[in-house]
Design a protein that fits this description.
Distance between the termini: 62 Å
Structural class: alpha+beta
Number of domains: 4
Number of strands: 12
CATH class of the largest domain: Alpha Beta
Shape: elongated
Number of helices: 11
Helix content: 40-55%
CATH superfamily of the largest domain: Histidine kinase-like ATPase, C-terminal domain
Order of helices and strands: HHEEHHEEEHHEHHEEHEEHHEE
Radius of gyration: 34 Å
Strand content: 15-25%
């Protein structure tokens, strides 16, 4: 009777005394003990397997959330918490406090369904791919949702498309412009010699030849400018892999400020620099200096258009809470319109009259090759902040 109760209540801790007398009771107790031992092994194996699978779920890079028909959450792994910026929830509807459109997608998706959802996390826009599977366990309905951040993949594909376009454009333009520039330079030289000798050619006055000379010279100059312009674009497709070395952040920032000191002083900008002493990051210093130069130049140009007494540029560098470090470059300039802010890292896009639209796009690529990111936020009339994040 006790044996059957143990089986019924899943209690396999009991044992039965074996006296080794060879009696039928001894044999029966022996078999009971063997059965209970086998059950204990099965339970231990199941618990170990459960713990093993739970550990895998918690450590995979894709976010996993499971919940029942009432919205009660059973599993929410570390990746899901990190992606959504949520520590822990009991019901799936609690996500709507931070991401209302995401909760709606979770509830509406059926087996095999997928959705692309944009959420804002730490003031950055993130694109999530959401997949759903409906399950049934012992007659109870569950839904398993997987979440993956595809922002970097989208940016990578977008950048790859732009690079392919640039390769085609530069190839065709260089093939056309190079001979024009070369011929124009030759004609310019010959006309210059005729003018020096004071020779009238075919009764053409020197004044006319001088006009020809100035025209060809202009063609030559513009051709050279176009070649340089195309060459700059071509550099976007030729960024070298970074050569990483430990770099002291404060020293690097001070070097950038020294290079741009004439522009900063001419605009009468007050620079506030707050850097944690001895802060180091593992980077390609030359490449990251170029990023900082681009960002600081943008800030200076924004402040040039401001008519105020207190023009300020604030640079902050600190360790990240989760490892790595960040560098913030903020100004109190004119700010950037919301529509333009979404496009500032796209190649060729610029809000400046004489801008090329290369600098920030190049900076984005450099930061991505470092395993980091660059983002911007802005308020019209209040200023703009660029944030460089470096992984640990």
């Amino acid at each position: 009777m006790h044996f059957l109760e143990s089986i019924h209540y899943d209690d396999f801790t009991n044992t039965y005394p074996e006296k080794n007398t060879g009696s039928s009771r001894d044999l029966l107790y022996h078999e009971f003990n063997e059965i209970l031992r086998k059950f204990r092994e099965i339970r231990a194996d199941k618990e170990a397997q459960h713990q093993y699978l739970r550990t895998i779920v918690q450590h995979i890079g894709i976010g996993i959330v499971t919940f029942d028909s009432d919205g009660e959450v059973q599993i929410m792994n570390n990746a899901a918490k990190k992606l959504l910026g949520i520590k822990m929830i009991k019901n799936i509807n609690q996500i709507s406090r931070n991401h209302p459109n995401l909760t709606e997608s979770f509830l509406d998706l059926k087996t095999g369904g997928r959705d692309l959802i944009k959420i804002t996390k730490s003031e950055e826009e993130v694109q999530l791919a959401v997949y759903a599977i409906e399950l049934s366990l012992r007659g109870k309905a569950f839904k398993l949702i997987s979440i993956q951040n595809i922002q970097s993949e989208l940016e990578e594909k977008e950048m790859e498309a732009w690079q392919n376009l640039i390769r085609v454009l530069t190839h065709e333009i260089m093939n056309s412009v190079t001979p024009i520039s070369s011929l124009a330079a030759t004609v310019e030289t010959e006309l210059a010699e005729f003018l020096e000798n004071g020779t009238n050619i075919n009764q053409i006055e020197d004044e006319t030849i001088e006009d020809f000379y100035l025209s060809v010279k202009t063609i030559h100059n513009r051709s050279e400018s176009l070649i340089k312009f195309v060459s700059d674009f071509r550099n976007m497709t030729r960024i070298k892999l970074p050569t990483l070395e430990s770099t002291e952040v404060e020293d690097m920032i001070q070097h950038v400020l020294m290079l741009l000191r004439p522009d900063i002083e001419a605009t009468e900008i007050t620079v506030n620099c707050s850097v944690k002493p001895k802060l180091t990051i593992n980077i390609d210093r030359e490449q990251i200096e170029q990023v900082l130069i681009n960002v600081v130049k943008n800030a200076v140009q924004a402040l040039e258009a401001v008519e105020k007494e207190n023009k300020s540029l604030t640079i902050t560098a600190m360790p990240n809470e989760g490892g790595g470090a960040f560098i913030s470059v903020a100004d109190n300039g004119t700010g950037i319109e919301e529509e333009a802010l979404k496009k500032i890292f796209i190649p060729f896009f610029t809000t400046k009259k004489n801008g090329s639209g290369i600098g920030l796009s190049l900076s984005k690529q450099i930061m991505r090759k470092h395993g980091g990111n660059i983002s911007a936020k802005s308020q019209i009339g209040e200023g703009t902040e660029f944030l460089l994040k470096f992984a640990s």
